[in-house]
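Cross-check.
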Amino acid sequence: MYRYDKIWINTRLGKLDLNGKIVIQDNKFIAIKDGKIAKIDEMKNFGSFTCKDIFDTKNRLITTSLVDCHTHLIYGGNRSNEFERRLNGESYADITKSGGGIISSIKSTRQESFNEIYESSAKRLKALIKEGVTTIEIKTGYGLDLDSELKMLEIAQKLEQNFPIHIQKTFLGAHAVPSEYKNRADDYIDYVCETLMPKIALHVDAVDAYTEHLAFSITQTQKVFKKAKSLGLHVKIHAEQFSMMGATKLACKYKALSSDHLEHIDEDSVKEMAKSGTVAVLLPGAYYFLRETKLPPIELFRKHGVLIAIATDLNPGTSALCSLQLMMNMSSVIFGLTVDEAFEAVTRNAAKALGLEKSKGSLEEGKDADFVIWDIEHPRDLICSFRPTSVFLSVQNGELVDV
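Predicted model, tokenized:
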């Protein structure tokens, strides 16, 4: 019997210490058994372990794989015309009122076939995998009827079957009011809670809601969260992106995994996040795409010990960017995160934002063998320079990634 399935030798490990500082450990090996990290040790202790395969990294840097904890990767259609309209001076609100925005994507997602949406989504997913992402969250919310929402989840399932990726699936039924419920938002929320959620609950890991003056109220969101909790599901929230509504405080009452966007959040809400352990997921791509001017309050998150994660928010209209490495750069240049913070934001903290901190997000014995062998010297190189070809090899659940 082999003691290990694979061993990666002569490695330089880039890890975060308990204080969130990147440390480089030279002359290490990583042993894998049954898709898990079984042992990390010094090369001087390598000895003659029985093993199926031994890989020599030749002193290359290894880190845990990247985690993209907020995406809307599956959708139909194309909204590049809206990007052009915003460049010409129209606001996101004006575009939404004219039938654009999320409503436009709902129409396209309902109309396009399973295969059409699968093929376009697969191209976006490949781009992220090639950058070292092995765990991703994908939200529904561009169907907003039972058949279309289930179609999106079936596409997510097929992507996970066909690609070396772990997908966390989030139901975002409370994303927008579809046209058939125009001016009847309360009725639509009833439909979400009484018809959609009970039938979708077994297919998802969490429930999200877009709580904003352009979307749903605190009262409507609370109804969604109560139903989600009754079905045993985690909750997350899109909150405080364009205005301060108190949505994050509501989410914290339900022990939300994360509150996302947060440009307009106040200090009392940040304190509540600290108490509930809710992760602040910041989305620099949306901030950049929409040319926002109010920054999320980084200093308040630091002051109160709220964990910060970074994600692509990959979507057709307000962050059509398939690069988590670019988000790392933006988070430092635009939001002011340090190199250590930006790296932690797409690894350990991003895993926690998905409820996966026990299995993902760091190089530790017993966790999933998800890691990247890089053609860089230090994790800072992922942040200070944008080079999407910096992955030498990627490993997911102990197996080499081939995309």
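The mean pLDDT is 95. The CA atoms of residues 120 and 212 lie 29 Å apart. Passed to J.P. for a second look.
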